[in-house]
Structures are given as C-alpha cells and as structure tokens.
Design a protein that fits this description.
By secondary structure, the chain is an alpha/beta fold. It is 29% helix and 14% strand. The protein has 13 helices and twelve strands. Strand 11, helix 8 and strand 12 form a beta-alpha-beta unit. Helix 4 crosses helix 6. The longest helix is centred in the middle third of the chain and has 11 residues. It is elongated and about 80 Å long. It starts with 5 loop residues before the first strand and ends in a 6-residue tail after the last helix. InterPro entries: DUF6371 (IPR045951), Zinc_ribbon_put (IPR047731).
Length: 343
C-alpha cells in the first residue's frame, strides 16, 4: 500500500491515457485515491514527457482550484464526495507560458547555416524561401550547428514555444540517425515553471484573413510551409505531429472555419476519429483520404505526406541546379550574362 492517500496510478496495461495538454496518447498517468473513494477528473495527473510537455496537475492543485470540495457539511472531508469525471466538469489548465519576443527576433537570422533554408532555396529560390520564412516566422538555432526553429505563434502574437529540428540540406528530410534531432526552445533554455500549452503552427496566419478562407491542417510544420508555396490560396497549419496541438482547446481557434485535414499516410483513420472534436467547432470538417487512394505500398510504408508528393516532381530551379552540378561552367555563363530564371 502506498504511503500517501493520493498517488499516481501504478502502471498496468491500458492504464495510461492521452495527455490533456500535449495530446499524445498513452503517456498520461492519473492520480488515484488509495481508499478508492474519490474519483479525480482525467486532467489530474502527470505527463511522461517532462521536457517537451511538462504537464503535472496534482490533487493539491485540484483542491486549491476547487475549494468547494473542501467546504462540505461533513466537516470538509473530501473523501466523502465523489468528484465528477472530466466530461462533467472542466478543470482549468495552468496559464500558458510564453517565449520572450527578443529571443524569437534574434533567431530570425543566420539562415546561411540553416539546412532547411538551404534546401528550400535550392527548391523554390531564395526570394520565395525568405517570404515563407518571414510568413511563418521560422528561426535558426545554434543547436546542432543551425537547426530550424518552428515557432508556435498564437493569434495574439504570443509565442508558446519553438520546436527545434535538424534537416538534411540536400534532401530536405529530417535527420533521424543516429537519433532523432528534435528538441524544444523552452527545454533548451531551462525556463523555470514553464507551462507548455501548444498551439497550431501557423495559427497567427488566421488573423490575416476572414473566416471564409479555407484552412488545411497537416501534421508537419515543414509540410505546411512547403504547401503554402504550392497552394497559397489556403491557410496551411500544422499540428506538430499526429497529436501535438490536436486537442479541443488548441483547435478552438478554427471556430466557424471550413477545415480540411490531410494526415500523413497511415494516420488517416486516427485523424478521422479525432476529427470528431472539431464537429461543433468548425463550420465544416473534411478528412481527406486522397493520399491513401493515390499511394503505392512502398509510399505507405514510408509514411509520406502531401508535401512529399508535390516535391516528387522537380521544380524548374531544381532542374537548373542539377544541370549546374553536371556542368559547373553553366553557372559562370549565367553569372556573366546576368541571366535570371523565369518560373
């Protein structure tokens, strides 16, 4: 028996649930009552992802936020009352923390060492890449020699955090060997008492248009940026992974919008299930299965996304770069004659 009346539930298969903050599945441990009398809401517990999420809502904090529980006629004994489940009663989340504007602004430079910037320059040209980086407020980190920072900027212009990822400048793919090079600005900065509440990547772009502008929701931040080039008439947002900011609170910014969800290959059914939480938020919700219908078995095994399909066909700039690699003298000719690629 535990020494404490209220403690984290001991692990058994199926006991962990989705985190109410970061949305990732099977990573949230609930608090339980050793005497099996009090039943806490599913928001009272701790997320396993201490660095990337850090959510931890204790029974003490729950009682503090719900003083009526301790003011019952039975002398204030909380063990005489069954607490409602989360569906019946909302538990307030900690106030979100933000990254300093100065930190963000300092990162919006040094693109000469940013591998993703180099890749997109080869693909779209430097002028278009600069436009996309400015639009999405993409930064450069000193970590790993210039990794990309995808800042999560909300509609109020506040930055919730920044995801740091390292890319291959030649392929534009994330570097995953010998390990996944992924981190977070709030973790790297060791900010005390930081409460992470993620928002969709690109959320600030919702302020640039009316609610009539259609929204495309994808998983990867890079995918949102790439697709903004190919299909600029839409607002491209990213959840930051299969779960990431895909929760009811974060998705509330899509109220009265027409939204199309475009999951990666292999994630369509999971997103179809999760789309239910958007039903009473959005004006219209569609889960696209276009990739599943078009993909080969090999592409499915690779878990490709919509940007991978669009990037399969080389752009005119990529074709030119290939020609220059085969014959470097071509670059000299272009420079000498001051030629410009017309796309």
């Amino acid at each position: 028996m535990s020494e404490y009346r209220f403690h984290l539930q001991k692990y058994r298969y199926g006991s962990k649930i989705s985190c109410p903050n970061c949305g990732r599945s099977r990573c949230f441990v609930r608090y339980v009552d050793e005497e099996s009398i009090i039943r806490f809401p599913d928001t009272v517990g701790k997320c396993d992802h201490e660095n990337s999420c850090g959510y931890h809502y204790t029974p003490r904090e729950y009682f503090r936020d719900n003083p009526d529980v301790l003011s019952q006629p039975d002398g204030g004994r909380a063990d005489r009352r069954i607490l409602p489940m989360a569906a019946e009663r909302e538990t307030p989340h900690p106030v979100p923390s933000f990254i300093s504007a100065d930190v963000v602004m300092r990162s919006l430079s040094h693109y000469e060492i940013n591998p993703l910037y180099h890749y997109l320059c080869q693909t779209f040209g430097e002028e278009e890449t600069q436009r996309l980086f400015r639009l999405y407020r993409i930064g450069t980190s000193s970590k790993w020699g210039g990794a990309t920072i995808f800042w999560q900027t909300d509609r109020q212009g506040q930055v919730r955090t920044g995801k740091i990822m390292l890319y291959d400048p030649a392929t534009g793919h994330r570097i995953k060997e010998p390990r996944a090079y992924v981190s977070w600005v709030h973790s790297e900065s060791h900010l005390p008492d930081f409460h992470l509440r993620q928002c969709p990547f690109g959320e600030h772009l919702l302020n640039r248009t009316t609610t009539s502008a259609p929204v495309m929701l994808v998983e990867s931040e890079k995918t949102a940026v790439v697709m903004c080039h190919f299909m600029p008439d839409y607002i491209w947002l990213a959840t930051g992974g299969k779960n990431g900011s895909f929760n009811r609170e974060a998705m509330s910014v899509l109220r009265d919008r027409e939204v199309t969800l475009i999951p990666d290959l292999g994630a369509t059914e999971r997103w179809r299930e999760k789309s239910a939480l958007l039903a009473d938020i959005c004006k219209r919700v569609v889960v696209s299965d276009m990739l599943e219908r078009l993909a080969t078995d090999e592409q499915r095994s690779q878990g490709l996304d919509i940007a991978d399909f669009f990037l399969t066909v080389p752009t005119q700039r990529q074709i030119l770069q290939q020609m220059i690699r085969r014959n470097p003298a071509l670059q000299l000719l272009i420079d000498e004659l001051d030629l410009e690629l017309i796309e």
